[in-house]
Amino acid sequence: MLPSELISWDNAVFRCYLGWSMILLFKMFALSFLAGLMRFITSTFANPEDLMSPKLKVKFDDPNVERVRRAHRNDLENILPFFIIGLLYTLTNPSAFLAITLFRVVGIARIVHTLVYAVVVVPQPARALSWFAAYGATIYMAVQVVLTAAF
């Protein structure tokens, strides 16, 4: 297939990639909103101009806010690479079943990761397992891109 045929609405792999990318993007937006909401709930503001009352002080150490911030940073470290790697993987003309399964694994695992990390805190290994599932699928796709491009 030509690249123009691979990046097309007619390609089920590309459509699935776009769908899961948008779901993950909206999840990241929701987590960003949750971080702001936690700041208001706990009156934890990092900038003096954000303080709602002269009685409040700048704070950086609220555990609830920091947990959501860490989850959001983890998304930035893992979902943004998936956006690039997933698109490049689509260009390798992979098996539709395998590619769609990998995209689903990454999407569902990242949603679970956020839920067990920032929303309903669940003890390990829940967070680690969801992280490894998404990371492993993304690394697999990256290796396939390298193997297809280099050899």
Tell me what you see in this structure:
The chain starts with a helix and ends with a helix. It has a single domain (3-150), classed as Four Helix Bundle (Hemerythrin (Met), subunit A). The radius of gyration is 19 Å and the shape is elongated. It has helices spanning 3-6, 12-42, 63-90, 96-119, 126-150. By secondary structure, it is mostly helical. 74% of the residues lie in helices and 0% in strands. The protein is built from 5 helices and no strands.
Kindly summarize this structure in a few lines.
The protein is mainly alpha-helical and 151 residues long. It has 5 helices and no strands. The mean pLDDT is 90.
Helix content: over 70%
| CATH topology call | Four Helix Bundle (Hemerythrin (Met), subunit A)
CATH superfamily: Membrane associated eicosanoid/glutathione metabolism-like domain
- Measured on Cα atoms, how large is the radius of gyration? 19 Å
Topology:
Elements: H1 3-6, H2 12-42, H3 63-90, H4 96-119, H5 126-150
Helix pairs in contact: 2-3, 2-4, 3-4, 3-5, 4-5
Distinctive features:
single chain; 151 residues; mainly alpha; Four Helix Bundle (Hemerythrin (Met), subunit A); 5 helices; 74% helix; 0% strand; transferase; membrane; endoplasmic reticulum; MAPEG-like_dom_sf
